[in-house]
Amino acid sequence: MKSFTVTIVGLFATLSLAGSLFAADYTLEATDTKPKDLPEAVANLLASEGHHIVSPKGPLCDLWLAKSLASKDAFKPDLRVKYPMQVGALIGVLEVKKGPEFTDFRDQVILPGLYTLRYGQQPQDGNHVGTSELRDFLLALPIEDDESTDTLDNEQDLQEISAIAAGSSHPAIFALLPPEQQEEKSSLTHEEDHDFWILQTSAGEENPVVLRLIIVGIGEE
Q1: 20 lies in a domain?
Q2: How many structural domains comprise the chain?
């Protein structure tokens, strides 16, 4: 009888642990309610459906991607650049919710509010060695400082405005991973080795670009 009791207790402990781990998951939902304070030109650029990400502590952020993305002509990916977008191109909009603390890939706190997301590339200098194997990133810029849908060609302006979002001297960045074949629906998966939560989706309706974005996770310094 004693061994049976221990087995039952162990089973309940295992189920309890599994339940707590499951409860700690981030979840992905669809949303069709765009932020009210978007500039009209930016709102018109976005797809009709967005991504609503919920943390174990409540709603975390909404991500809206552009209906079309301009790609470089004759683009060929290499070892460190996998995405065809022009640096400074508007990719979408990020709405950080009031609630759980939200941080970028460098563990910089991004305050609740609206941000544009623009494509950028990690500089090739000694200050960024080890941050990521790839140079592909999205940079968040406060919407009040970036209301245009045009490509932001000046990389210094791109980085300086993004740094305002992080409240630091470094841009607010979100790493992109090499794209994989896109399934019918967007997905949010957990990469356990680095504790990354990866959003895989596609942007653009006519010539879609598959994106794999680390929406929650911190890179190694």
Answers
A1: no
A2: 1
